[in-house]
Amino acid sequence: MTCKNIDIKERIIVALDVEHPDLAKDMVKRCESHTRYFKVGLQLFMASYFEVVDWIIDRGHKVMLDLKFFDIPETVKLAVEQVNSRGVSLATIHGNDAIIRAAMESRGDLQLLAVTVLTSFGEEDLRAMGMTQSVEDLVLFRARRALELGCDGVVSSGLEAERLRRDLGDKLLIVTPGIRPGLNISDGADDQKRVITAGRAIATGADHVVVGRPITKADDPIRVLEEMQQEIVDTI
Ligand code: C5P
């Protein structure tokens, strides 16, 4: 169980996975009374470069830039350098020790999260990529390396949060996507496989949860946010 004292308005990071900057800004305006943490990922960044990132930060909110940098160490180092002075709070990288070390060299004040194993991967996906470890063991292995190399935290599913917290302690920031509301918590409903509710993720050790479609595709995003926040409050 995490001991970090995080404001409820920063527990849920809303993933702005939309195709146009105007749609992202509309979503921020709808949600900002309830949350002040937003994630910009590949789709929106391709559509708007830093425009929406800067706009969100100028409104006083936090941004997680989820571009999952993965390349040769020098390229990752230079990409992180492009981000480190823009006011972004969290950015994602992955790779081996040399890649993570290179990212650490140029991160400045930027907090870096290492992606462990995508929440859309199950055991069979690891086998199909030639990996023999279980998902949980691989997540733990990668998280331990990331922590040893100085990363601020990891992205993992809520199913591994408890073991990460138990084995690696409280210093590590755990950010958890693959969040689905309790009523439709079956895996296979979409591309996410290692799913959990927001409250369970926080209760078992996550610091933040990342929520996209359950909020952005909802008829009433605020109601979903409120229900998830209530579930989180009830668990901490
Ligand atoms: O719509 P949904 O709630 O599944 O969105 C989850 C978000 O979290 C997406 O933007 C996805 O790119 C991101 N993410 C993830 N799994 C990871 C890392 C990031 O689902 N391991």
Q: Descriptors for this entry?
A:
binds cytidine-5'-monophosphate; globular; 8 strands; 8-stranded parallel β-barrel; 43% helix; TIM Barrel; alpha/beta; 236 residues
Give the fraction of residues assigned to helices.
40-55%
Quickly give the structural class.
alpha/beta
Total helical segments: 11
Assembly category: single chain
End-to-end distance? 9 Å
Low-confidence regions: none
What binds here, in terms of ligands, is: cytidine-5'-monophosphate
> From the coordinates shown, what is the CATH architecture?
Alpha-Beta Barrel
Give the biggest beta sheet: 8 strands, parallel, barrel
Strand content: 15-25%
Secondary structure topology:
Layout: E1 12-15, H1 21-31, E2 37-41, H2 42-48, H3 51-58, E3 62-69, H4 73-83, E4 90-93, H5 97-105, E5 111-115, H6 123-128, H7 135-148, E6 153-155, H8 158-168, E7 173-176, H9 198-203, E8 208-211, H10 213-216, H11 221-235
Parallel strand pairs: 1-2, 1-8, 2-3, 3-4, 4-5, 5-6, 6-7, 7-8
Helix pairs in contact: 1-3, 4-5, 7-8
The structure holds cytidine-5'-monophosphate (C5P).
